[in-house]
Amino acid sequence: MTEQPKQKKQNLYLIGMMGTGKSVVGQIVSEKLGLSFLDSDHEIEEQTGLSINEIFTEFGEEKFRELEHSFVVEGHESEGNLISCGGGLCIAQGMLEQLKEKGLVICLWASPETILSRTQADSNRPLLKVDSPLAEIERILAQREKRYLAADKVLSTDNRSIEQVAKLVVEFYSAQTS
User: Fold this and answer.
1) Residue 1 domain-assigned?
2) How many CB atoms lie within 10 A of CB 66?
3) Is position 102 within any domain?
4) 28-47 per-position pLDDT tens digit
5) Does a structural domain hold residue 4?
6) Domain containing residue 167
7) Does any domain span residue 114?
8) Would you give the distance in Å from CA 141 to the centre of its chain?
9) Separation between Cα atoms, residue 1 and residue 50, nearest integer Å
10) pLDDT by residue (tens digit) across 118-168?
């Protein structure tokens, strides 16, 4: 009896603002679905040997966005992955469309207040190193909202546990790929 080749699974991309749960939910979902977990920010840090903060400080946001583009185009396998995308990765012209060509895109959404409560203790958030982090979150969300809401599915993480969000992601992915 010959063994059937294992069928590859469609990539799943989690997009959304920082603090919406992409990384923690992504790790749980990847295990449940048998996908390899990748975090775009972590992959960029590994590739460059620099932290995201260092890239922003030394080279600026534009260089970081170029590195994100390279990651999307050639930095990961075309199947079998769950990718937790940095908050701004899908915003540049054509990036969301490229993600959709490569797999299923789910946006994790949260209110500005929820995002602030989840991120305020994290010093590795270069976009929140400002006098009024809540106002900055509101500004960034307003700027990115249209792109985020263009995902294949949008799931609110407000008032939901990590496990509840993970279950919803698994259910949507499974329904779309079966």
Assistant:
1) no
2) 12
3) yes
4) 999 999 999 999 999 999 99
5) no
6) 11-177
7) yes
8) 15
9) 49
10) 888 776 666 667 788 899 999 999 999 999 999 999 999 999 999 999 999
